[in-house]
Design a protein that fits this description.
six-stranded mixed sheet; single chain; 34% helix; globular; two-stranded antiparallel sheet; 8 helices; 261 residues; Ribonucleotide Reductase Protein R1, domain 1
Length: 261
């Protein structure tokens, strides 16, 4: 779930997919690594209760192995403990590893921006042209929405059955948080692990004495951009919760039926 991005909507939820076991978070290697987007996607995935898996696509378009390794490492750095797979839907690199996640009739949702190759991966895993694909712009590698609605696709294992299910979703441009459970804590597990050594349990990691997180930033073992990103997401979540409470109060005054949690 994410916050609805439709104009005029306030504190409304947008359910992207439901009843999922695994979430493939797709990022194209041909685009500059976007750590901040991945962090947000990880929060959404963890809060869904599913297992997030980072899938880096379009390996066949990368000619420089050193640059490929650098981009992989850049995204791995903000996904501690999350499985990472580098694949090509065109050549078939790494697809067998992805198929294993659907074993036992599990459902796998694909989440990513337009143009990262979700539909290409679905077609390659299924072994046929079940989803439309399109081209991306040269300048920014963005693509048009070839998938315009969430679609459930059976993943075959043999002629008489299906091994699991793939859920192809439209490209998500705005990755806005909804009400978080433990998503932020799990997506930023490295920062929270360091914070266990802070003197104060409610440390804000700013100017408090004996702050282990601030010390890690000074020592260079924690990227300050990652800490800033976590603080922004915590603040965004808090603001959203206040907005939700205000909305419920207004609805209650107007006599609307209270929503179930």
């Amino acid at each position: 779930m994410r916050r609805a991005s439709f104009e005029g909507q306030r504190a409304e939820a947008h359910t992207i997919a439901a009843n999922i076991d695994v979430v493939f978070l797709l990022h194209a290697l041909v685009s500059p690594p976007n750590q901040r987007r991945l962090e947000r996607e990880l929060v959404l995935a963890f809060d869904s209760g599913a297992q997030p898996v980072l899938v880096l696509t379009k390996l066949d378009l990368m000619d420089d192995s050193d640059e490929t390794a650098r981009r992989v490492a850049t995204l791995e750095a903000v996904a501690p403990g999350v499985p990472v797979h580098v694949v090509s839907g065109v050549r078939g690199d790494g697809l067998d590893d992805l198929r294993r996640y659907a074993r036992g009739y599990r459902s796998v949702a694909l989440l990513g921006a337009s143009g990262v190759g979700k539909s290409t991966i679905v077609n390659a895993l299924v072994g046929g042209q079940v989803q439309s694909t399109g081209v991306v712009r040269e300048g920014d590698q963005r693509g048009r929405h070839t998938t315009t609605a969430v679609q459930l696709v059976a993943l075959p294992s043999d002629p008489v059955g299906a091994e699991g299910w793939l859920i192809d979703t439209p490209g998500v441009r705005a990755v806005s948080l909804w009400s978080s459970g433990t998503g932020i804590e799990r997506a930023f597990a490295d920062v929270f692990a360091i914070s266990d050594a802070c003197r104060f349990r409610d440390c804000k990691h700013e100017e408090e004495p004996d702050c282990a997180v601030s010390a890690a930033v000074r020592e260079g073992s924690l990227d300050p951009r990652r800490l800033d990103s976590m603080k922004r997401l915590v603040a965004e979540e808090a603001a959203l919760e206040e907005e939700q409470k205000a909305r419920l109060k207004v609805e209650d005054r107007r006599g609307f039926r209270k929503r179930k949690p």
